[in-house]
Write a structure and sequence with these properties.
Alpha/beta knot, Ribosomal Protein L25, Chain P, EC 2.1.1.193, Ribosomal RNA small subunit methyltransferase E, 2 domains, six-stranded mixed beta sheet
């Protein structure tokens, strides 16, 4: 499979940031090389490299529509290698949004640098998986809860299971706490926003395992895998 690159498309050209320029250099691509450029919004183009910064857009290779089922994740930053794993797999599963936020028991705080790092992990995961939509990575204060979505907080105190809480809606918001779990104050806060507290099963899972399991369950029950 040919390598895909992420570009900012403008007026017939694809422009590359420093991360993509490094990728182009690693692939030893030169002026005149053919390049496949994705815009992160469902389109894949064929282009010709002009220099390390940009390419001409020669034509559209593929255009796709967004997934019918939209999944938004609310995550607490955890140890980087574990957060990276969770973000990679969530991106491969085609989530729409990854929201990073600090909870009372978060030990590795969210900041602008971490948002940037997570965004790059998301982009690389998408390029590998062949998905043409790049999930939005943002802070909690910028995230608007979608109206009509099923909102679930994953917590071992939940009396119902995730399996029994996936309904006929097509949009889901899944909130995962830090390694120490949610505090009562946070549970009350999510409850006030209309979140239902559910558990995946009887055992306590690590955050990254819970993320992959929860997305898989939703996708499976909505007949998407």
């Amino acid at each position: 499979m040919s390598e895909n690159f992420f570009g900012f498309i403008d007026d017939g050209f694809a422009h590359f940031d420093e991360h993509e320029k490094a990728h182009i250099k690693v692939m030893r691509m030169i002026k005149g090389s053919k390049i496949r450029v994705m815009d992160g919004k469902g389109k894949l183009f064929e282009g010709t490299l002009i220099d390390k910064d940009r390419a001409t857009i020669d034509g559209l290779i593929e255009s796709t529509i967004p997934d019918r089922i939209k999944i938004h994740l609310i995550l607490s930053p955890i140890r980087w290698e574990r957060l990276r794993f969770a973000v990679e797999k969530a991106s491969e599963f085609g989530v729409s949004t990854i929201v990073l936020t600090n909870f009372d028991r978060t030990t590795r705080k969210e900041n602008e640098s971490k948002i940037r790092k997570v965004s790059l992990v998301v982009r690389d995961a998408i390029k590998q998986s062949g998905t043409l939509y790049v999930p939005v990575v943002e802070e909690m204060e910028n995230f608007k809860l979608p109206e009509g979505a099923t909102k679930l907080i994953l917590d071992q105190r939940g009396e119902s299971t995730l399996r029994n809480s996936v309904n006929d809606h097509e949009e889901f918001v899944l909130a995962f706490g830090p390694e120490g779990g949610f505090t009562d104050r946070e549970r009350e806060f999510f409850n006030s926003l209309g979140f239902k507290m559910v558990k995946i099963w009887s055992r306590t899972l690590r955050v990254e395992t819970a993320v992959v399991s929860a997305i898989s369950i939703v996708r499976f029950l909505k007949c998407e895998i």
